[in-house]
Amino acid sequence: MPIHTFWDNEDKTVVRVENEGKWTWDEFHLSLDEVASLIESVDHRVDVINVDRPGASMPPGPPVIHFQRATRMFAQYGSLNIVVVRSALNRSMLMTFARMLVGTTSSTLMILDSEDEAYAMIEADRASA
Fold first, then answer.
1. Where are the domains of the chain?
2. pLDDT tens digits, one per residue of 34-71
3. What is the 3-state secondary structure (H, E, C) of the chain?
4. Of the segments 88-92, 97-101, 109-113, 123-127, which one has the largest average pLDDT value?
5. Does domain 3-128 have CATH number 3.10.560.10?
């Protein structure tokens, strides 16, 4: 499966999702189910970092309905949902979706350029909580 979901650290405070190559919306939803299962297996806050590896490509079809499910899920858990995107096309699509969410949900979707930025964002958010 081109989407890999796993604990990022021993403390089980960050779930990492890595996308590579061509993946499908069914694989995306299976990964969301895996993320939910990991989050529900512990009794503390868990944030999520989703990384698009070079060459990862979003499947055809409108992504909005799929991203809405992810957004609702992360809002339910109070998790930061950080997407590290290097592809200009995927970044553009995600930015459009993020703008559509403004004012409609307590979205915690963040789109960043690097994994280092993602870890720094999580650390800063946890420090301010």
1. 3-128
2. 999 999 999 999 999 999 888 777 788 877 788 778 87
3. CCEEEEECCCCCCEEEEEECCECCHHHHHHHHHHHHHHHHCCCCCCEEEEEECCCCECCCCCCHHHHHHHHHHHHHHCCCEEEECCCHHHHHHHHHHHHHHCCCCCCCEEEECCHHHHHHHHHHHHHHC
4. 123-127
5. no
